[in-house]
């Protein structure tokens, strides 16, 4: 049987490791890096041989390479989820720069949205989401989309979808694949919650998504036109509400419909043109 010394000799380990330009022998009789000054070898006590070790600047370089690989993986996930998400021109225009907050209520919502993004790491760690609820046309989807866009710019993997698309036949019967895709996202944005109430099958699918997200302890942002959750009597839906309210802060959005107001502006403009 070969001894360790024989094995190491067979490996061809030299007395000192091969020094690179700028390296030097220190007072400890070890080769030191000419850049960071740290030792690049270690001397074994039992036989006096030198073995290579990683110096500090090489450790830093490896850490940077690993961070870059992680960044590229995150970017790939962002792009994959963006392609899968319900993203159109209206979504892309939903940014904080386009957030018109000319009422105290809108300013309050804008502050919540900005703070959510600014404290994203804390929100993620605490599985903290948002529930925008209220009358149709009050900017719920816009507010949720502003958050999604801001986080995606920071390379956070976000999946944005609507309940209508979520329960569409295009997803097929593979619910496990759907849940897997959902849970690869750091943030899930579900638009128009409550639209699934028309059939028990769709309601069951939505419950499965929310329950899986809840169990994975990953945050959700949900928008809904539902307003009076306290009058619900359906046990299944009450369980869904319990999940949502446990992890999502409710943000009420009422007032005049922004879509209706914008439509009136367009009609007034067209009438002014046509009537001279």
Short description:
This protein is an alpha/beta fold. It contains eleven helices and nine strands. The radius of gyration is 29 Å and the shape is elongated.
Descriptive report:
By secondary structure, the protein is an alpha/beta fold. It contains eleven helices and nine strands. The protein has two domains: 1-83, no CATH class; 85-264, P-loop containing nucleotide triphosphate hydrolases (Rossmann fold, 3-Layer(aba) Sandwich). Strand 7, helix 9 and strand 8 form a beta-alpha-beta unit. Helix 8 runs parallel beside helix 9 and helix 9 runs parallel beside helix 10. It is elongated.
What labels would you give this structure?
single chain, 276 residues, alpha/beta, Rossmann fold, 2 domains, 5-stranded parallel beta sheet, two-stranded antiparallel sheet, 9 strands
**End-to-end separation:** 104 Å
For this structure, what is the CATH class of the largest domain?
Alpha Beta
Annotated CATH architecture of the largest domain: 3-Layer(aba) Sandwich
Write the H/E string, N to C. HEEEEHHHHEHEHHEHEHEH
Could you say what the CATH topology of the largest domain is called? Rossmann fold
Number of strands: 9
Shape: elongated
């Amino acid at each position: 049987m070969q001894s360790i010394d024989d094995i190491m000799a067979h490996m061809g380990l030299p007395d000192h490791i091969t020094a690179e330009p700028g390296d030097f022998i220190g007072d400890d009789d070890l080769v030191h890096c000419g850049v960071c000054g740290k030792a690049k070898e270690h001397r074994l006590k039992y036989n006096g041989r030198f073995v290579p070790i990683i110096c500090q600047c090489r450790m830093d370089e490896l850490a940077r390479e690993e961070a870059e690989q992680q960044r590229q993986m995150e970017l790939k996930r962002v792009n994959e989820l963006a392609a899968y998400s319900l993203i159109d021109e209206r979504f892309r225009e939903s940014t904080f720069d386009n957030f018109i907050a000319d009422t105290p209520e809108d300013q309050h919502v804008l502050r919540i949205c900005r703070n959510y993004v600014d404290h994203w790491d804390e929100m993620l760690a605490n599985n903290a989401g948002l529930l925008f609820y209220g009358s149709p046309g009050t900017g719920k989807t816009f507010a949720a989309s502003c958050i999604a866009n801001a986080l995606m710019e920071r390379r956070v993997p976000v999946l944005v979808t609507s309940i209508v698309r979520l329960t569409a036949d295009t997803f097929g019967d593979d619910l496990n694949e759907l849940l897997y895709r959902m849970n690869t996202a750091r943030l899930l944005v579900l638009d128009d919650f409550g639209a699934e109430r028309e059939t028990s099958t769709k309601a069951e699918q939505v419950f499965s998504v929310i329950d899986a997200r809840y169990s994975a302890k990953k945050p959700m942002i949900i928008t809904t036109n539902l307003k009076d959750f306290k009058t619900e009597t359906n046990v299944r839906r009450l369980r869904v509400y319990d999940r949502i309210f446990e992890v999502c802060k409710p943000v009420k959005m009422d007032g005049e419909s922004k879509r209706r107001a914008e439509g009136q502006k367009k009609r007034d403009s067209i009438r002014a043109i046509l009537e001279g």
